[in-house]
Design goal:
Blueprint (H helix, E strand, L loop, with lengths): L4 H6 L3 E5 L3 E6 L2 E4 L7 H19 L3 E9 L7 H13 L9 H9 L7 E5 H22 L5 H9 L2 E5 L4 E5 L7 H7 L22 H5 L3 E5 L3 E2 L1 H9 L7 E7 L6 H15 L7 E6 L5 E6 L11 H11 L5 E3 L1
Parallel strand pairs: 1-4, 1-10, 2-4, 4-5, 10-11
Antiparallel strand pairs: 2-3, 6-7, 6-13, 7-8, 8-9, 11-12
């Protein structure tokens, strides 16, 4: 917690700590949690870390709440009807049956109870953010008939939008992802960005944005309605309003790419949700359980001084190598 504490002090007085994101499956007769019906070591570690962070935040006299995000997209036997029933039960305050017993034990050990935790469903978050994505896509389509429409969109969003040649994907990028000053200083050059260089996990402790800056495009949506992982985390953020700052706690033991998915989700929320204004701290647990810490403050993404033509030139230099074209 020694490295984390100064970052906690930067957060505002109300903080949501997202941890223990887990699959829910089965029916109301018997719900199961986890990929194989049990919590993984990574899930338990992230939940335990989240509890410790809430305790630390409360020591700083901040209001802190745990958030448990249940992945209900597959494995729910009753389909949408069962999902709605789960949603209604949670909304009414009937939480305990939707918290894994291992998590309840960790809560009790810390002197916490169900009142210290909020529960949200991934299906609901995906629906929310899918609407935001479609609204943005509609805006882009309506602007295309105008001269310099990309410059106009850049002025409005601080970002540019892309797809692949088959027009099957919706992607975004922003000047933050092309700012390599810290990385180049650390490595004494920009050789790390070359295609033939593999990013070492050990580098991420000092440079948590390294992988997303090496591939500075955020894929959010595929044709056919598939919401991609960064947009899933954006959906989680959409459950809360701007009164709250956020901490995300995830383990690479469960998903080696989870850190990049979460950070890209925070970036997407900042770009596509015009009202979004929060500080977001990411605590990503490495395969060796070291903490990769990063913070995106509420004005980090939205405020940019990058000239449109300079930014456009940077994108044009690499978009083809990534199989993308500007919308």
């Amino acid at each position: 917690m020694e490295r984390t504490f100064p970052l906690l002090e930067k957060l505002r007085n109300s903080v949501v700590v997202d941890c223990g994101h887990i699959i829910i499956s089965g029916t109301s007769k018997k719900y199961r949690f986890g990929l194989n019906g049990n919590c993984s070591e990574g899930e338990l570690l992230s939940f335990r870390t989240g509890i410790n962070l809430v305790s630390s935040l409360r020591q700083l006299n901040k209001k802190a709440t745990l958030n448990l995000y249940l992945s209900d997209l597959s494995g729910i036997s009753g389909g949408n009807e069962e999902r709605y029933a789960i949603y209604e039960k949670i909304k009414s305050g009937d939480k305990c049956q939707f918290i894994p017993k291992e998590y309840i034990s960790l809560l009790e050990d810390a002197g916490f109870n169900e009142h210290d935790i909020e529960i949200n469903l991934q299906s609901k978050g995906n629906e929310r953010f899918k609407k935001i994505i479609k609204k943005t896509m509609s805006k882009i389509s309506s602007e295309k008939s105008k001269n310099d429409y990309r410059k106009s969109l850049y002025s409005e969003y601080g970002a540019l939008f892309l797809t692949n040649k088959a027009k099957e994907i919706f992607s975004i990028t922003t000047p933050f992802l092309f700012n390599h000053l810290d990385e180049n200083e650390y490595f004494n050059g920009n050789w790390w960005a070359n295609d033939d260089v593999t990013i070492r996990d050990s580098w991420l402790k000092d440079l948590p944005f390294l992988k997303i800056k090496k591939n500075p495009f955020v894929n959010l949506y595929e044709s056919g309605g598939k919401v991609l992982c960064p947009a899933t985390y954006s959906g989680l953020l959409s459950h809360y309003n701007n009164d709250n700052d956020h901490i995300a706690v995830y383990s690479r033991r469960d998903d080696p790419f989870v850190g990049e998915k979460v950070i890209r989700g925070v970036i997407a929320s900042n770009i596509l949700d015009k009202d979004f204004s929060r500080n977001c701290l990411q605590v990503i647990l490495s395969n060796y359980d070291e903490q990769e810490l990063s913070i995106i403050c509420k004005d980090t993404i939205k405020k940019t001084n990058e000239d449109f033509n300079d930014f456009l030139n940077k994108i044009n230099q690499i978009q083809n190598s990534k199989g993308l074209v500007l919308l």
